[in-house]
Each structure stands twice: as structure tokens, then as C-alpha cells.
Amino acid sequence: MSRLLELGPGGSGAAGAVATRDQLEMRAAAHAAKAVPPALLTMASYNGTLAAVRTLGRVGIPVTTADRSALATGGWSRFASSRLQCPDVRDSGRFVEWLLDFGRRREKHVLLPTSDDTAWLYSLHREELSRHFHLASPPVDVIYRLLNKVTLYEEAVASGLAVPRAWFPERVDDLDVCRREARFPVVIKPRTQVLFRTQSKGYYVEHPDELPKRYASFAEQRHADGLLKLDPSAALPIVQEFHREAARGIYCISGYAHEGQLYGLQGARKVLQQPRRLGIGLCFEEAAVLPALAAGLGTLVTRTGFSGVFEAEFIETRHGAVLIDFNPRFYNQMAFDIARGVPLPLLAYYAALGDGERLEPFREATSSRAQPHGRVFVDLLSLRLLLTAQRLSGALSREEKKRWTEWYETNRSRCTYAVADSEDRLPAWFAGMQLVLRYARHPRNFVRYVVLNRK
């Protein structure tokens, strides 16, 4: 294939995703006439997918988006060549058949994992999908060992990384051991988010006596049959000790893994999430990459044989950092890392085409980013909704609202946004519409999680 870009790991700030935007537009025009394979990105409503659409589209790669919703934000980006509707990914049989039908009828696209569900499904069906798509999905046992917390924690410990104390009960009667051994509070979490219908992060449990009832309630939240047929144990939640430090900040390392090497590592701290104990990140601050944790992640990807985009999450406790998640796919704040000079979707695109040489300039990128420059990432729409709703309900004090408002205003000039982009305005409008529709369909969730900040 023709060379698309000659890029190093430069670029900084919200306006410099890979190079300056003027440079990107010039390169896009230069490559528009060249025959480059198009990309297919599903789960177009996710922030990580939108970031990938913009990154690939800006350099002239045709991007088709697909989602069950016609309002999915990524599909309305001006950098998307076309948008389609497809079956819900949790109806995995129909979703995979739709993919195969798309592949049979279209030219060969690059297929990239945009969520836990698609990462697992692309690996599970990689033999048949590879007949119609360019993809670099690892074997399914590799992906699932990273997406299942039982096996992830085993691999992490073997790689020299600390993990939280956790228990893996097989029935409610087994909770007596947890109640005796655990330091409360604890959280009840799904073993895996793969094809998990509610996508709940978990339940917070303050007292031992509450554990059986809360465990039984959480166990009623089901995974789709497509997963349970292959792993019935996925339906069994885990119990994990809760570190109060998690509510004040989660430390993240992200980058690209390829053949045992790590490329373009970036550090960040999730400083605000919704709900605030267990939730989706709204605000992140740039942070240095911690060498010991990076080394442990290098061992982890080598042990498991994983290649691809990843984000690892740690809680920084007074005894050291503990790994709580390893996400082997695109992620919520990926635009932040792109803005800081690591075009992760492009690295994934090159790897799927077998062009590993493109990754080499990013191998040493970590050392050049040892000192953060105060950049931040904000999901502004969700932040404003949270501050307004929780201030009205009393879940947020006047002082806390003032602190977060001042935090945003202070960092505004160094901000990367989840959706907003002055050169690509429509996705922000559709993100607002999706937010309104989601909470209109689930008003109890809106009151519980957003207004009252309960989990």
C-alpha cells in the first residue's frame, strides 16, 4: 500500500492531534486521491470511536461508522465518509452476520476494536472476519484473559503488578468468607464487561451485613447469551476491596502494544468520574509515566501475547499502585492521548495492514513525555450536567462546585474535549441529544447516579 504519513510522535495541546491541523488538512488532501484501504468503526456513539473517526479522517482515510442508533455521534462527524445502522452488538449473532455481509459486499476495510464487546467478538471470529477485513485481533483466549478480572489479576500478579484483594464466590453462600476476610467497604463488580447488558461498573457495599442482598441483586444483571454459552462463570460477580483513594483519582497508562513492545506510552489521572465512587471519567489531568508500572505492563503484554491499543487503570494507595483494569481497545479519553501526539487509531490501522514499521517512531515516546505540561481532558457536557444537578440536589456542596468550575476555567486553554471540536461541530449536538434521550428513557438512573451521586 502507499505510505500514508511520515509522522513522528510530535504535536501537543488540543489543536495538535498528530501535527498541526493545517498540516493534517494538507496531508489529507494529498492522500485523498490515493488508494488507501477504508476503515470500519462500530459503536459510533462512544467517545473513543469519535476520536478515531477524526484521526483517520483527517489524514484522508475513508471511514465508515456503524451503530444501532442513527444519532450516534461518530457518524455525524464531517470526517466520517458514511454512516450505517447495524444490529446491537449484544445481539452478537446478528451483529457478526451483519459484519460478514458488509465484508462480502464491500471492498476490504480495516476493522478496529472500539469496545470490550467488539474486541472480544473480533477475536472470537477473527478467522472468518479476516477473509473480508484487515484486522490485527489477537486470539480470543488472549483478549478474554485480559477482559476477565479473574484471569487478569492472575496475569498481573505474575507480571509483578499489585492488584486489589478480591474474592470470586460461586454462590451467595460463599460470601461468608468475604464477610470474614475483607476490609469493608467493598465493591461488587462483573467478572467481565463483555456483552454485559447494563454496563454497570458495580455496587458499593459499606457494611458486611449488606453484602448478600447486594450481591444477589447485582447477580441479576445478566450478560448476553453469546458470552454465557462459552463461559457460564461470567455471570458470577466478584467482590473486591474498595480503596477510598479511587474516588479522588485513578492513574492511567495508555499506549500501543505490538509484539511485546510498548509504544507511545502516556500517563494521566482521572480526577473526576460519574458516579464519583465508581464511574465513567469526566476529567483527566496529564501525568508522568511511572517506570515501574510501565515495566509491569510490558511484562503483562509479553506474557499474554497481546497486541493493540490499551489503557490500564491503577488506584494509587499508600502501599503502592494496584491494577484494577486493562482495557484492550479504544477508550473514553483516547482523544487526550491523540492531542498529546500519539495517534493511536493510526497505529492500530497500520498494524492491521501489517505495516509495523510505522510504530517505530513511537517506541521511545515515553521518555520525551516524562514531564507533564498541565494539559487536561474534559467531557464538558457531562461535567456541566453533573455540577448543576448535584448542586441542586445537595449532593455537591457550594465549595465543591466552585472548585470544579474554577478547575475548568483555569485549565481551559490546555483542554482537550471529549466531543466538542471547533472544526467538527455536529457531534457535540448529537451527543447532547443522546444524553437527553438516554436519561429520558431511564429517569431513575438519572436521579440515582447523576442527581444524587449514588452507586
What keywords describe this structure?
455 residues; five-stranded parallel β-sheet; 16 strands; single chain; 18 helices; alpha/beta; disordered N terminus
In brief, what are we looking at here?
The chain has 455 residues and is of the alpha/beta class. Helices cover 38% and strands 19% of the residues.
Return the structural class. alpha/beta
Low-confidence stretches: 1-21, 28-33
Amount of helix: 25-40%
The counted number of beta strands is 16
Lateral strand order in the biggest sheet: 14-13-10-11-12-15-16
Question: Can you characterise this structure?
Answer:
The chain is of the alpha/beta class and 455 residues long. The chain has 18 helices and 16 strands. The protein has a 7-stranded mixed beta sheet with strand order 14-13-10-11-12-15-16. Strands 3-2-1-4-5 form a 5-stranded parallel beta sheet, with helices on one face. It has a 4-stranded antiparallel beta sheet with strand order 6-9-7-8, with helices on one face. Strand 11 and strand 12 form a beta hairpin. The model is unreliable at 1-21 and 28-33 (pLDDT under 50).
Please describe the topology of this protein.
Elements: H1 21-32, E1 39-42, H2 47-58, E2 63-67, E3 82-85, H3 92-105, E4 109-111, H4 116-124, H5 126-129, E5 133-134, H6 140-147, H7 149-158, E6 166-167, H8 175-181, E7 186-189, E8 203-205, H9 211-219, H10 225-228, E9 238-241, E10 250-258, E11 261-274, E12 280-287, H11 291-304, E13 308-317, E14 320-327, H12 334-339, H13 344-352, H14 365-368, E15 376-378, H15 380-393, H16 398-411, E16 415-417, H17 426-441, H18 443-451
Helix pairs in contact: 4-6, 6-7, 17-18
